[in-house]
Amino acid sequence: MVTSLNIKRDFLPGSRPGRLVNFAVVILLVLVSIYNMAPGKPGCGLEADHHQPGDYCYRTKVTVSNLNTTPLSNYPVRLTIPSIDFTAQGFIGEDGWSIRTYNISLNPVEVVAQALSSNTSPWWLAVTANASDGATPTTWSGWIYMGSPYVDRDQAVNLAGSDLMTVPDDFALEWTDDFDIVATATVSSTYMTQPDAGWVDKYTAGTNSGYWLGFDNGNVVGKVGDGTTTDTVSAAWDGVEATWRLRFDSGAASKLELFKWNSLTNTWDSAATGGTITSVLHNANNFLMGKDFTGVLRNVKTYKDVGLPGYAKIQEYAFNPEDITETAASDPNYSGTIVNLVDSATHPASFAWSRSQTNISYSMGPVMPVYASPAESVPEQFATIFNNPSDTNLFAAGTLNTNMPFYSVFEGARVDMGMPGDAFWTLLFGGIFGLLGVAILLATRRPEIAAVVPGVGLLFGAFNGLLAPWITLMYALAAASIYLIGKWGQE
């Protein structure tokens, strides 16, 4: 009598499909981690033909909570950013130009970065949030995108109405004739009604002296005074970002003229003309920028000797991250210096910003890679099944659970090793649960059951805000594919 033994083919010692399934978990975890670590190198390759959120290598989610009973409208909220770490890991460049911020709808918002040589860099993010009832905060969510090798950001200062930038009075700024004042600004629809909001102010109404360029209730206005008379020109404006130039030239047909830069034709279009005075009277006022102005001031420049051989730029304040240095901070008052790009030794500006952070708090998620601009638009349209159900981004982790057991120990180890968050937490959760999966495999001989276990670990990481949902989804798809290939190979 012969008795036959029926051994399952997928676990025969020489079975290739069986070995593939058995080692699929370990292979998959290693591949996912390597894939996560690769974009951590500076200068990841991106398309340069358009400038969208997907043109950046990395992003981190920011959530701001407002407990004030008044709303926030493009209000500067102070963030503390580990700029040195971001620079060392290739997230941002040393000049801070490869940064851009967006709200939850991927509409750009302003951010003022500064002190990039610090791990407690004060950045100011423009936030719009509804008023709170005083008990439950309202929230704003958005992202800081970083690391584009192609897109350079032109930083501006977002002023809150009581902010001021001052250049001490100097004879070199006391022009009597032939000068240009240029400013690039934006005003939101919320603040179109604001009187005498100066972009550049060295004017005194009582003595009809000096010069002024700014915004006044829906109009861009320029003024010059000779001690007796003040000439004024104005043009209506909708607040959309534009560059304006005020020119005083007593020898021209229009002594005082207001121009708006036309970016389509690269020319200055005349917006208003006028003026009768022949000389501007000196005064001892400081050169002020942003006085009583609520809005964005991107650039301020002045020129002397218009139409003459000595025509030259005297000042330029571009508000770049490396040109702004905070020297004192005691809420609500923040002060520091701004460099004159024409000559850092002359006409430096000092800023005094008053912007209370009372009842305003924020949280930031881990820095996540953004892999390619074509892939960015599709996942943004799907509601994630993890964390906040209102979140629509599969590439960003949810709210971080810092109360997770041993979180501080593991996070400290990750920082010390310099590993990107996705790589570290994928190895940790996937590795621990992967070993558990191997044990289940040996006990049950059911690879499809064992393969689920690492996915549970990755899902746990996603629920705690440590991993982006796409990692778990990718693992699930890859595990299913490997299993099906193994089954196919047995037939």
How would you explain this protein's 3D organization?
The chain is of the alpha+beta class. It has three domains: 9-40 and 384-490, no CATH class; 53-155 and 359-371, Immunoglobulin-like (Sandwich); 160-317, Jelly Rolls, CATH 2.60.120. The chain is built from eight helices and 25 strands. Strands 8, 10, 15, 16, 17, 19 and 20 form a seven-stranded antiparallel sheet that branches. Strands 1, 3, 4, 7, 24 and 25 form a six-stranded antiparallel sheet that branches. A five-stranded antiparallel sheet has the order 18-9-23-22-21, with no helix packed on it. Helix 1 (16-37) packs antiparallel against helix 5, helix 1 runs antiparallel to helix 8 and helix 5 (421-444) packs antiparallel against helix 7 (452-463). The longest helix is centred in the last third of the chain and has 24 residues, at 421-444. It is elongated, with a radius of gyration of 30 Å.
Question: What is the gist of this entry?
Answer:
The protein is α+β, with helices and mostly antiparallel strands and 491 residues long. The chain contains eight helices and 25 strands.
CATH topology of the largest domain: Jelly Rolls
SSE-based structural type:
alpha+beta
Compute the CA-based radius of gyration: 30 Å
Helix content: 10-25%
C-alpha geometry: elongated
Q: Which band does the percent of strand residues land in?
A: 25-35%
Q: If you average the pLDDT, what whole number results?
A: 82
The CATH C-level name of the largest domain is: Mainly Beta
Tell me about the largest β-sheet.
Answer: 7 strands, antiparallel
Overall number of structural domains: 3
- CATH-scheme architecture of the largest domain: Sandwich
> Can you count the helices?
8
